[in-house]
Specification:
The chain contains no helices and eleven strands. It has about 170 residues and is mostly beta strands.
Protein backbone atom coordinates (compact mmCIF):
# COMPACT_ATOMS: atom_id res chain seq x y z
CA UNK A 1 0.00 0.00 0.00
CA UNK A 2 1.42 3.39 -0.95
CA UNK A 3 1.82 5.93 1.81
CA UNK A 4 -0.70 8.72 1.22
CA UNK A 5 1.79 11.32 2.48
CA UNK A 6 4.56 10.52 0.03
CA UNK A 7 4.81 12.21 -3.33
CA UNK A 8 7.06 9.79 -5.18
CA UNK A 9 7.46 12.37 -7.95
CA UNK A 10 9.00 14.91 -5.54
CA UNK A 11 12.80 14.88 -5.55
CA UNK A 12 14.49 14.39 -2.20
CA UNK A 13 15.38 17.76 -0.73
CA UNK A 14 19.20 18.08 -0.59
CA UNK A 15 18.96 19.10 3.08
CA UNK A 16 17.96 15.54 4.04
CA UNK A 17 20.12 13.65 1.55
CA UNK A 18 22.33 12.31 4.41
CA UNK A 19 19.22 10.41 5.64
CA UNK A 20 18.31 8.78 2.32
CA UNK A 21 19.35 5.38 3.73
CA UNK A 22 16.37 5.56 6.14
CA UNK A 23 13.70 6.10 3.49
CA UNK A 24 11.15 3.38 2.94
CA UNK A 25 9.33 0.87 5.11
CA UNK A 26 11.10 -1.25 7.71
CA UNK A 27 9.53 -4.22 9.50
CA UNK A 28 10.81 -6.03 12.55
CA UNK A 29 12.37 -9.28 11.40
CA UNK A 30 11.68 -10.88 14.78
CA UNK A 31 9.93 -9.52 17.86
CA UNK A 32 11.69 -6.79 19.79
CA UNK A 33 12.22 -6.87 23.52
CA UNK A 34 10.65 -4.35 25.87
CA UNK A 35 11.35 -4.00 29.57
CA UNK A 36 11.39 -1.45 32.36
CA UNK A 37 11.68 -1.91 36.12
CA UNK A 38 8.00 -1.06 36.71
CA UNK A 39 6.42 -3.32 34.04
CA UNK A 40 6.62 -6.99 33.03
CA UNK A 41 8.92 -7.71 30.06
CA UNK A 42 7.13 -7.90 26.70
CA UNK A 43 7.78 -8.68 23.04
CA UNK A 44 6.54 -6.55 20.17
CA UNK A 45 6.65 -6.16 16.42
CA UNK A 46 6.95 -2.79 14.70
CA UNK A 47 6.73 -1.18 11.30
CA UNK A 48 8.57 2.06 10.53
CA UNK A 49 7.68 4.31 7.59
CA UNK A 50 10.15 7.04 6.56
CA UNK A 51 8.87 9.22 3.70
CA UNK A 52 9.32 12.66 2.17
CA UNK A 53 7.34 15.14 0.07
CA UNK A 54 10.30 17.18 -1.17
CA UNK A 55 10.50 19.42 1.90
CA UNK A 56 13.71 19.66 3.98
CA UNK A 57 12.32 17.09 6.45
CA UNK A 58 11.77 13.34 6.62
CA UNK A 59 8.28 12.30 7.74
CA UNK A 60 7.92 9.19 9.89
CA UNK A 61 5.32 6.93 11.44
CA UNK A 62 6.10 4.05 13.82
CA UNK A 63 3.45 1.41 14.63
CA UNK A 64 4.07 -1.25 17.29
CA UNK A 65 1.98 -4.34 18.07
CA UNK A 66 2.05 -6.89 20.87
CA UNK A 67 3.93 -9.90 19.46
CA UNK A 68 1.46 -12.52 20.71
CA UNK A 69 -1.96 -10.82 20.75
CA UNK A 70 -1.24 -8.52 17.76
CA UNK A 71 -3.03 -5.70 19.61
CA UNK A 72 -1.84 -2.18 18.72
CA UNK A 73 0.62 -0.73 21.23
CA UNK A 74 2.76 2.32 20.75
CA UNK A 75 2.36 4.85 17.92
CA UNK A 76 4.75 7.67 17.07
CA UNK A 77 4.70 10.09 14.17
CA UNK A 78 6.62 13.20 13.31
CA UNK A 79 9.48 14.75 11.41
CA UNK A 80 13.26 14.63 11.22
CA UNK A 81 15.13 17.86 10.52
CA UNK A 82 18.85 18.41 9.97
CA UNK A 83 20.53 21.64 11.02
CA UNK A 84 21.94 22.98 7.73
CA UNK A 85 25.68 22.58 7.30
CA UNK A 86 26.05 20.23 10.30
CA UNK A 87 25.48 16.64 11.36
CA UNK A 88 23.02 17.82 14.07
CA UNK A 89 19.44 16.68 13.75
CA UNK A 90 16.13 16.69 15.56
CA UNK A 91 13.22 14.27 15.79
CA UNK A 92 9.91 16.04 16.48
CA UNK A 93 7.60 13.32 17.82
CA UNK A 94 3.94 12.96 18.86
CA UNK A 95 3.01 9.73 20.63
CA UNK A 96 -0.41 8.13 21.13
CA UNK A 97 0.29 8.10 24.89
CA UNK A 98 -0.07 11.89 24.96
CA UNK A 99 3.66 12.56 25.07
CA UNK A 100 5.21 15.05 22.65
CA UNK A 101 8.97 15.28 22.45
CA UNK A 102 11.88 16.81 20.67
CA UNK A 103 14.96 14.62 20.56
CA UNK A 104 18.21 16.12 19.30
CA UNK A 105 21.49 14.51 18.44
CA UNK A 106 23.96 13.65 15.73
CA UNK A 107 24.14 11.73 12.51
CA UNK A 108 27.44 9.87 12.18
CA UNK A 109 27.71 7.80 9.00
CA UNK A 110 24.60 5.62 9.25
CA UNK A 111 23.88 6.04 12.95
CA UNK A 112 21.53 8.47 14.68
CA UNK A 113 22.19 9.17 18.36
CA UNK A 114 19.45 11.20 20.06
CA UNK A 115 18.60 12.58 23.51
CA UNK A 116 15.37 14.21 24.62
CA UNK A 117 15.60 17.99 24.49
CA UNK A 118 12.01 18.86 25.39
CA UNK A 119 9.06 16.82 26.66
CA UNK A 120 5.41 17.82 27.04
CA UNK A 121 2.40 15.71 27.93
CA UNK A 122 -1.34 15.91 28.30
CA UNK A 123 -2.53 17.12 31.70
CA UNK A 124 -4.05 13.69 32.37
CA UNK A 125 -1.05 11.57 31.34
CA UNK A 126 -0.49 8.44 33.38
CA UNK A 127 2.20 8.58 36.06
CA UNK A 128 5.07 8.10 36.55
CA UNK A 129 5.83 10.66 33.85
CA UNK A 130 8.59 10.13 31.33
CA UNK A 131 11.43 12.53 32.16
CA UNK A 132 14.10 11.58 29.60
CA UNK A 133 14.48 9.49 26.45
CA UNK A 134 17.55 8.49 24.46
CA UNK A 135 17.44 6.62 21.18
CA UNK A 136 19.98 5.13 18.76
CA UNK A 137 19.27 4.00 15.21
CA UNK A 138 22.07 2.12 13.46
CA UNK A 139 22.16 0.67 9.96
CA UNK A 140 24.13 -2.54 10.46
CA UNK A 141 26.57 -4.07 7.98
CA UNK A 142 24.01 -6.82 7.24
CA UNK A 143 21.52 -4.16 6.02
CA UNK A 144 19.27 -4.39 9.06
CA UNK A 145 18.24 -1.32 11.04
CA UNK A 146 18.64 -1.55 14.81
CA UNK A 147 16.91 0.69 17.36
CA UNK A 148 17.57 0.95 21.09
CA UNK A 149 15.46 3.24 23.29
CA UNK A 150 16.28 4.15 26.90
CA UNK A 151 13.85 5.93 29.21
CA UNK A 152 13.79 7.60 32.62
CA UNK A 153 10.66 8.36 34.63
CA UNK A 154 10.05 10.34 37.79
CA UNK A 155 10.95 7.28 39.87
CA UNK A 156 13.36 5.32 37.62
CA UNK A 157 16.78 6.32 36.21
CA UNK A 158 17.66 6.13 32.51
CA UNK A 159 17.30 2.42 31.64
CA UNK A 160 17.09 0.47 28.39
CA UNK A 161 13.40 0.13 27.54
CA UNK A 162 13.26 -1.19 23.95
CA UNK A 163 15.52 -3.03 21.53
CA UNK A 164 14.53 -4.23 18.05
CA UNK A 165 15.94 -4.85 14.57
CA UNK A 166 14.18 -4.33 11.26
CA UNK A 167 14.57 -5.48 7.68
CA UNK A 168 13.80 -3.20 4.76
CA UNK A 169 10.37 -4.04 3.35
CA UNK A 170 10.34 -1.37 0.62
Amino acid sequence: MACPFQDSAAPLNPAVLPLDWLLGTWESDEPGEGSFPTIPPFRYTETLHFTHVGQPVINFMFNAFHAESKKPLHRECGFIRIQPGTNRLAFIIAQNSGLVEIEEGELTAQQLTLQSHALARTSFAREPHVQQISRVFQLRADGRLEQTVCMATGDQPLTQHLHITYRRAS
